[in-house]
Amino acid sequence: RHANTAPDTHVAHVLCESRALLVASREYLRRHGTPEHPSDLSKHECLLYLRDGGMQNWSFERIHGRKRIERLSVPVSGPFKANNSEVLREAVIGGLGMSLLPDFSVFGSQASGHLVPILSEWRPVGFFGSRLHAIRPWAPKAPRAVQCLIDHLRRILARGFSA
Questions:
Q1: How confident is the model at residue 137 (pLDDT cuts 50, 70, 90)?
Q2: pLDDT interval class at 163 (50, 70, 90)
Q3: CB neighbours of 27 closer than 8 A, spacing ≥ 6?
Q4: Cα separation, 92 vs 125, whole angstroms
Q5: Across-strand partners of 46?
Q6: DSSP state string for 3-31
Q7: In what order do the strands lie in the sheet with 98-102?
Q8: Tell me, what DSSP letter sits at residue 129?
């Protein structure tokens, strides 16, 4: 599960930390230009992760000066919405627009060379969870196979997500 905290109803094992990235394809940026500030996103085709409500805002923050954090929220809209980050990733690769995606989706084997991070000095906040968890129903002890899978996932994910 991709969340900040795991549900209280299950046993959760943190697998790794995660972050959101704003990305676009090179083709989209060639046709529409690269935003230089989050406020520029209102002029771009933003591919949205389905959430409750019609209008969507993306929030960003950056360190400005000595420990002063600058935060802002911008309204975004676009031609496509989905409730699956892999579907959004494929739409971004296809040049349909830009989107906020989790790092593990951006740096997947097929996506790495196709997506360009945008506004790297700004950090998207409050959009996706900050951790990946393995969750299982409560039991006094995890079955050996489950524990082996969790250990394997931790080793694989400890390598991190990078371009």
A1: confident
A2: very low
A3: 95
A4: 20
A5: 98
A6: ESS--TTEEEEEEEE--EEEEEEHHHHHH
A7: 81-82, 46-49, 98-102, 20-25, 115-117
A8: -
